[in-house]
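Take a look at the protein record below and tell me what you see:
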Amino acid sequence: MKLFNYHYDFIKFKLYNVNSSLLNRDALKPNKNLNNHYSLTSNGRFFDKNFDLFIDGGQNITIRSSIPYLIYGHNFKEFDALDLLKAMKSLSDLLGIDLIEAKVIELEFGAYQKIENSSKDYINSLIGLQDFRLEKSTTTMKMFGNTRGLHLKIYDPIVNAKRKKTFSLSQYPNECLIKYEIKDLKPTHLKVEDLCLPKTFISFNKGLNTHLDHLLIRSEDRYLPIDNSINHILFATLKNVEQEFGVPIYAKTVNLLKKMELSSSQKCKRKKSLLELETTYNAQHQKR
């Protein structure tokens, strides 16, 4: 699985006990609907709509933004630790406060993959993720999550870009694409300065690929019943399960046979029959 354009995406971070008088209010525009929320007015330095700043009663400042969107207006590009550091320094300079020490509350990290078939077919073939549960599924997206606050979202980025009206700006290619996105709702002990270290970016890169290695993908049935008997239909089905999920069917069946209350002769006959089926179907697969 070859991925490209690894990037930090959405980040929610919080700066505590801020002297709000230091804020450059000229760079902020009050939200019409939400109290103490502000959007950005950067006079062209940033794509301002991709930004929300909130000042709570304790003088803590929370910022929500997709950083690539803030810088480029889209996220179809690599955006690594050094890019994030540069963006945060520029944003800190505009706002008049140092964001590098802010605590990370939420984080998204993503990458893209070119695929041969349509995104709908690929997404439909995703049947699970080890140690995660399916949380949402549509024809263009699936999302899995676990109890540790991690979510893996897999979706068609071209459909997403057209919905957000960033398709032209991002200049997506004509090939079929898939976007993988890890969302961490419980990043422990991470500050913005940590994300700006290359080793942290590399760690997220490896983590995303590890999760993708555990995706369960429905594959085409490679074994067909040699005849119409129920034994052959069931064994061919089991061999396809073995192919798709790596379950050692013959070994598990033999182990189960050993536990059964059968005579040695009966066990031997059944084991011989299983071995004949195993050998026959393995040979069938090798011919294909």
